[in-house]
Amino acid sequence: MSEELAGTSAVPTRPAQRDDCPQGQETGYRRVFAVREFRFVFVAHLFSLLGVVVSEIALTVLVYGLTGSPLLSALTFALGMLPYLVGGTLFAGIADRFPARRVLVVCDLVCAGCAALMALPLTPVAALLALRCVIAVVSPVFNGTRMATLADVLGDGDLFVLGRSLLRIVSQSAVLVGFGVGGILLTVVPPRGALIITLCTFLVSAVLLRCGTRRRPARDSGTGALMRYSLAGARQILGHRRIRALLLLLWAPPMFVVAPEALAAPYADEIGVGTAGVGLLMCAMPVGTVAGELYAGSALSPATRARITLPLAATMLLPLLAYAFVPDLVWAPLVLVLAGAGFAYTLGLDRWFVDSVPEELRGRAMTVHTAGLMTIQGVGMALAGLAAEFFAVSTVVTGAGVIGTVVCLLLVAEVRRTSGPEHAGPPGPKGETGLTAI
After folding, report:
1. Given phi > 0 = left and psi -120 to 50 = alpha, else beta, which region is 119?
2. Which helix (H) or strand (E) holds 48?
3. Claim to verify: residue 210 and residue 248 sit in the same structural domain
4. Cα–Cα distance between 211 and 40 in angstroms, integer?
5. What is the pLDDT of residues 322-350, one digit of tens each?
6. pLDDT tens-digit series, residues 410-429
7. Which pLDDT value is given to residue 6?
8. Which of 79, 114, 195, 423 could form a cystine bridge with 132, CB 3.0-4.6 A?
């Protein structure tokens, strides 16, 4: 996990260079790297992401080697996703109640400590799985805090959108190359040795965030028990019609689009291709996602990205309907690349979301968003697998495209209905109109 910042009351909560990209101003990602703090955040993200990927592979190999159980080995991956909901709801308040830099550094140190314990030769399998759960509980708090404080570093305008996009692109790229690199690493280093590398990456991330980012105060002093404070924030966020609509539109396409990835192995079997075909099917959608976001972020203006947000969200699942014709290993990856490219809709939606959430709720809102996104993808994978027990994979993926498109159209209509000023979040501090009055 890794990246980001916080500060003193002497440090402004917005950077000097706000950026709504007026006509004639340069577009693209280079502007983001001109912000010194973001460069530290970005490099920290690379290191922590490397640590997560290496630990997932190393733990899977280690648990299987100790137990010989495919179930327990697979469970190490599942435990990286399931506790997100717990951390993202019960501990979301940490992101607002404490200075962000402190939260980020402590989260990295907690993960480093877990990696160190995992690397000990006498650590039993049950403890390995429990430590994996701890990292998964910490992750949504870390990621939500990072998302919220990007607005402090980059402003809540177009630079924020591009910064979020870059971090997503790095994460998607890790899907493409990370597991391959990790597999090669394990041919040279034993699994517990690889966990030492994970320990080092988390420590490097913590140092980068501590030394390269400003100290900023907590967004909200907050009183009472942490869990109650966290749950109250989640109720406020989900109780606001505009923010709820935006959140659901951020969650819905990923829930349905995971179906072809979750069923890549059985689909490869259905069309009669080997394990190489599975890899190609798994890689196609991340390729489309990276390509779509890079193009939208570098070639399109903020106004253009805003105009295409809802049309893309409404139609990005339509390529999955091609599975009704049982596409072969030439056409299926092209379909998945096209569907992945539709994720460029998130650039516009990210801007609307951060604009709608009041600053004192921003950390909790981003943490809920992260936890919900991971959870909903897990639900989507499970439902796709369940449906594939009764129907052909091609039918399941086609159904996901149909049902998902209907759901997205309904959510797009709701987002349009809530776009007026009467649905905006509160522009001022607590006690004024808006979310805090709900």
Report:
1. alpha
2. helix 36-67
3. no
4. 9
5. 999 999 988 999 999 999 999 999 999 99
6. 999 999 999 866 555 544 33
7. 31
8. 79
pLDDT at 400 over 90: yes
Q: What pLDDT, in 10s, does the model give residues 335-390?
A: 999 999 999 999 999 999 999 998 888 888 998 998 889 888 888 888 888 898 89
Whether residues 129 and 5 share a domain: the answer is yes
Give residue for tokens 């390269």.
212
Q: Tell me the residue length of the chain.
A: 438
CATH of the domain at 390: 1.20.1250.20
Give the contacts of 27 (CB within 8 A, at least 6 positions apart).
Answer: 21, 298, 299, 300, 301, 302
For residue 324, give the DSSP letter.
G
Domain end: 188, 219, 250, which one? 219
- Which contiguous run of DSSP H or E holds residue 422? none
Number of H helices and number of E strands within the chain? 19, 0
Question: Which of 25, 9, 7 lies closest to 17, judged by CA?
Answer: 25
pTM here is 0.79
Tokens 């998130």 map to which residue? 346
Residues 66/125, Cβ–Cβ less than 8 Å: yes
Which pair of tokens denotes residue 386?
Answer: 């369940």
How remote is the C-alpha of 346 from its chain's centroid?
11
Amino acid identity, residue 309? T
Shared domain check, 137 and 245: no
Four-point Cα dihedral 132, 147, 165, 427, nearest 10: 150
Residue pair 331/286 in contact (Cβ under 8 Å)? The answer is: no
CA triple 47-53-55, angle to 5 deg: 100
Indicate whether 212 and 280 sit together in one domain: no
Asked if 351 and 396 sit in the same domain, the reply is yes
Range of the domain at 170: 1-219
Q: Compute the distance between CA of residue 281 and CA of residue 265 in angstroms, rounded to an integer.
A: 9
Asked if 227 and 350 count as a contact pair (C-beta separation under 8 A), the reply is no
Nearest residue to 247 (alpha-carbon basis) of 260, 257, 232, 234? 234
Per-residue model confidence as pLDDT tens digits over 261-298? 888 888 888 888 876 677 788 888 999 999 999 999 99
Cα three-residue angle 125-128-133, rounded to 5 degrees: 130
Distance CA 19, CA 432 (A): 27
Residues 188 and 240 in one domain: no
CA 139/CA 145 separation, integer angstroms? 10
Domain check: are 346 and 302 in the same one?
Answer: yes
Q: Are residues 256 and 154 in the same domain?
A: no
- Among the candidates 198, 219, 240, a domain finishes at 219
pLDDT at 143 over 80: yes
Looking at the structure of the chain, the number of domains it has is 2
